[in-house]
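User: Sequence recovery, please. Input:
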């Protein structure tokens, strides 16, 4: 796990995919607030059985990422989260969780049956194209969510322009650089900015952000701003109750180290992958709604 992370970090020196790591420095939403119980019923905790991963019997589950329920037996998450597992059975999702480290009596754990990573996902920087392009994956679950209100509608191609809207990000990612995983699900409002503005703020070559990305930002100010952080990966960006983004990447440490300032958080743009999602669901014979 740590080896995987260090390879990734050296590929993309200023960027970190926002997956949680099991020890060492992890990444929660910075400057978020506690969500009310069950206020984001589509949000799942994606967990990895570290014992199965190293070939031992038994179960020892760790939160690695977020995800969103889009059908009663399908979760949308980030490819860099799903690829951590060498077998689907190493992963489960926990639906209707609120306090990650306590029993709320609302949680439902469902094992993963099949993982489909986007065929053009690139784990790291593709210098001709982008950073972590197509960082999106579908998880087909062994069972179904008990409560159909967990299912969130996904953004369509027609609604792709969300620039200027105030939306909500949620997750159990770190609440600050080198901080700890929060117990209670965190939420924060963020503004959607254009790909062009996002690129300018990152101040890097203009191929950095592409149409498959959507960026959120709330200013650089190190006390009033905010960002997604490690452990938020795969989780939702929601605008008007519709799933618009999947947490993908941000600044290593989730702030600029010297000033504590924020940069935009970058998401996979769900509307761009609408066709891919529908095709995959059809392959699984899973209908609309
Ligand atoms: C993160 O959580 C810690 C421990 O609860 C707290 O002391 C700290 O102020 C929080 N940081 C932010 C930015 O919310
Ligand atoms: C997207 O919407 C914003 C805000 O309404 C508008 O300023 C912008 O021109 C639109 N962009 C495109 C590509 O349509
Ligand atoms: C950041 O925001 C705080 C609170 O509004 C303000 O006091 C501070 O001056 C701002 N910092 C900068 C660098 O603008
Ligand atoms: C925010 O910026 C101020 C002044 O620019 C600085 O003194 C402070 O340490 C910074 N805070 C963080 C969390 O980096």
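Assistant: Recovered sequence (289 residues):
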């Amino acid at each position: 796990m740590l080896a995987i992370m260090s390879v990734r970090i050296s590929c993309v020196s200023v960027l970190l995919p926002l997956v949680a790591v099991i020890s060492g420095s992890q990444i929660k939403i910075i400057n978020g607030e506690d969500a009310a119980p069950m206020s984001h019923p589509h949000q799942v905790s994606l967990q990895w059985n570290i014992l199965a991963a190293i070939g031992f019997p038994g179960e020892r589950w760790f939160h690695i990422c977020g995800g969103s329920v889009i059908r009663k037996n399908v979760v949308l998450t980030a490819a860099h989260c799903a690829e951590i597992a060498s077998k689907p059975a190493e992963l489960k999702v926990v639906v209707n969780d609120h306090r990650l480290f306590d029993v709320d009596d609302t949680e439902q754990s469902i094992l993963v049956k099949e993982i489909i990573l986007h065929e053009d996902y690139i784990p790291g920087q593709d210098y001709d194209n982008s950073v972590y392009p197509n960082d999106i994956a579908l998880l087909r679950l062994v069972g179904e969510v008990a409560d159909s209100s967990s299912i969130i509608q996904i953004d369509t191609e027609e609604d792709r322009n969300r620039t200027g809207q105030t939306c909500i990000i949620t997750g159990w990612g770190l609440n600050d650089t080198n901080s700890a995983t929060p117990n209670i699900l965190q939420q924060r409002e963020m503004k959607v900015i254009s790909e062009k503005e996002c690129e300018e703020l990152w101040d890097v070559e203009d191929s950095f952000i592409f149409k498959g990305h959507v960026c959120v930002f709330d200013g650089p100010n190190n006390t009033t701003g905010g960002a997604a952080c490690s452990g938020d990966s795969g989780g939702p960006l929601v605008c008007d109750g519709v799933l618009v983004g999947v947490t993908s990447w941000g600044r290593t440490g989730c702030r600029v180290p010297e000033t504590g300032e924020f940069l935009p958080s970058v998401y996979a743009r769900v509307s761009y992958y609408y066709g891919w999602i529908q095709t995959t669901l059809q392959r699984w014979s899973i209908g609309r709604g």
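The chain has a mean pLDDT of 87.
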